[in-house]
Amino acid sequence: MRYGYWTPVFGGWLRNVPDEGMAASWEYTRDLTRNAERWGYDLTLIAELNLNDIKGIDQPALDAWSTAAALAAVTETIELMVAVRPNFHHPALFAKAAANIDRIAGGRLALNVVSSWWADEARQYGLQFDEHDDRYARTSEWLRVVDGLWTEDRFSFAGDFYRTEEAICAPKPVKRPTVYAGGESEKAKAMIAAQCDAYVMHGDPAAAIAPKIADMRARREAAGGAPIQYGMAAYAIVRDSEAEAKRELERITTVAELPAGYANFDQWLSGTQLERELKLQEYAVSNRGLRPHLVGTPEQLRERIAEYEAAGLDLLLLQMSPQAEEMERFAAQVMGAA
Fold it and tell me: What is the pLDDT of residues 60-93, one digit of tens each?
């Protein structure tokens, strides 16, 4: 298993814990990433949103690509998987900038291609927002242009969304960056099977992840591509006893006061007690991070991770809080004992 973590560009991951002790700042991010290399983490995912999706849209959020460029210059081994939304970046100009960052990083850049979902953000910034199927048509063209600039001396393209005419990208990346992407629709999975190198999923139990991996493997084989990697988001809590881990889970999922922007949350509180508990967890942690239930003792977490490995998962993309302290603990007690 490879271990990655989400760079805390939003100042944390818990929607109902206002201060997690990790500021959305360059200093915290730099120090965390350097320590993550020392602790043995393989990769960091740097999310790209101009508005803060976790703490509220009026709160600070770091820019993904300038942060990635800075991290490239001050780190040595960690893979920098940076989210990119095609409707926010012209592909030819992006290919040039990303190639330069990959050069600074010595070949450690990777992309997490995200077909945008937040219409209000695009409206606020005056940017194009496509309906669902058009998003993947745009992303498919966008990837063709980026790949063409990275692999050909001159690249010409005429599509529905983009055009280039003998465009040049030099210097090129040290090596072609790995392209990660996620999505659960038919359009998304068809595009990923045809054009990407890795499939990333929201959190789910291993029994739900296994058929998703099997499905994508079959699609990839049908498309004639080489085998791809599989990653999943998860929130991790490791403690010396199961009781301690459960107390921490209760702390992060207890809703004391709803932050601004969650006026519709009352609709989530209907149904059975079990449904209510699950919905509170979905609210508290993004990307279905608590569904994998990486909550417990080191031995329990290693057993659950082994189940994911058996299902075909290659990469865990972890969120924790407070991040530096919890990442160090996880590295020592779970990764270090593997």
Answer: 999 999 999 999 999 999 999 999 999 899 999 9
Residue ranges covered by each domain of the chain: 2-335
Q: CATH top-level class for 2-335?
A: alpha beta
* Both structure tokens of 263: 């006026």
DSSP character at residue 335: I
Alpha helices in the chain (DSSP H): 26-39, 64-74, 91-105, 119-124, 132-151, 186-195, 206-223, 242-253, 273-284, 298-311, 323-330
Closest CA to 99 of 190, 22, 169: 169
Nearest Cα to 128, choosing from 137, 119, 140? 119
The pLDDT, as a whole number, for residue 264 is 40
Q: How far apart are CA 4 and CA 179, in angstroms?
A: 15
Q: What is the DSSP string of 200-264?
A: EE----HHHHHHHHHHHHHHHHHHTPPP-EEEEEEEEEE-SSHHHHHHHHHHHH--SSPPTT-GG
The predicted model scores a pTM of 0.92
Radius of gyration of the chain (CA): 20
Low-confidence ranges of the chain (pLDDT < 70): 132, 255-281, 337-338
Q: Which pLDDT score, from 0 to 100, does residue 278 have?
A: 57
